[in-house]
Please model this.
Amino acid sequence: MIERIHETIVAISSPPGHSSVGIVRLSGPQAIHIVDQMMVQDRSTSLTKADGSRRINAEISIEDDLRLPATLYLFREPHSYTRQDLVEIYAPGSPPLLDMISHQAVSYGARQAQPGEFTARAFLSGAKTLAESEAVAGIIRAESDVQLRAARRLADGSATRQVLAVREQLAELVALIEADIDFAEEPIEFITPPQLQTRLRDLQLELDHQMNSAQAVEQFDSLPRILLFGSPNVGKSSLMNRLSGISRSICAAAAGTTRDILSAPIKLGRCEAILLDAAGVDQSIDQIAAAARYMTLSEAQRVDAICLVVDVTQAVDPHVVELMQQLNIGNIVIAANKCDLKPNETSPHHTIQQELQRLGLSGLHDDSHTTIKDSKTVAISLCPISAATGQGIESLQSAMLDALSGTTTTTLSQAILLSERQREGIRQAATAIAHAITLCQSATETIDCADLLAFELREALEYLGTVTGDITTEDLLSQIFANFCIGK
Model:
């Protein structure tokens, strides 16, 4: 990737799938010339003669008889994302058309970009730090507000600034040690072993504090998952829309409206989770319904909690309760839905309790209950709700939060964020400093072990350099940017 930085690359930069507009991006010394060749020639202005950054409405030709309307965004170096000449082609967002545009650019001399190569060029040109570059991938992958804020916090450079401060002090100590080597014949000692040991201990404590006080950015990469489980037409889709705040699921009186598994982030107090709405489970022999039921049961094996949705106006389906018990999920919330439709003379809460006890969920006498099943603790909460009116939703959210019991991702604190790669660099640097401290303890004068001290501290400097991005290798960059999508 590094040695090919002066080649012109092209990639589709918009998300996969159909859309009204798609983006094809080119970067490199021939980017403007290649797009100029793709433009229809009956125009008054050549793209290569256009100065500065601008938007141009044009037509591009991708085959002899096929012309597409396009909007071109031209960014001349160094005023672009990559600090190279860069052109973005906005065209109709049909995947086959975007592929044809990309292949046409390749036929004129570009090559297909590797994953993350545009951001890698931004880093190599100095437009972005390594932390900012890693944050780009986090922003793209973010599924929730917390994940998005974590990625932005990773990009703010707070961790890098603290590491840089340690690195500067370490570089000063290396200079003093190497001065002792250079003036070994002179009666001069630039720093004594006790002085060096004291300063190194302070730096070691600072690195330990950074690791212990920082949050791991990876903890925000996955949110706990809650599956809405129940018979068809009990109100799972309505509850999904109510909890997520968006009309994510189609709601209809007909059973079997939901076929695929839908997901949406939801707020649970100060925490977040992913709510899944799947097809209802029943004993239907219809092939499509059976396939949807199999998908639901498969997904139920991978979630952190289940919300069993029951309709208080109907009897609870014993088949559904039996399937839920077979799943052996430890965290269960029961949403007794449509309680606004139940006659006042009968308590929906009491009725559902009786039904579930009859079907084998014994011991469910309170809103929240913990029982033992097959040597596994099962937390069960019962919440009468109305997905239509919003009644009882806050109690259901609290019950869901309790059911997740520590698996939720909390909001960000003020602590700095470190990736595992950064943690490993700091850890290795602290180890090298510890070796240097051991050398100081056995030395009468610094010159006695100056060579070894200089070696250990330069090792520490290199490890800290990988954290800040001042020292990189091809393998390190390949590992980081391989996690990007192509086109970013």
Summary: The mean pLDDT is 76.
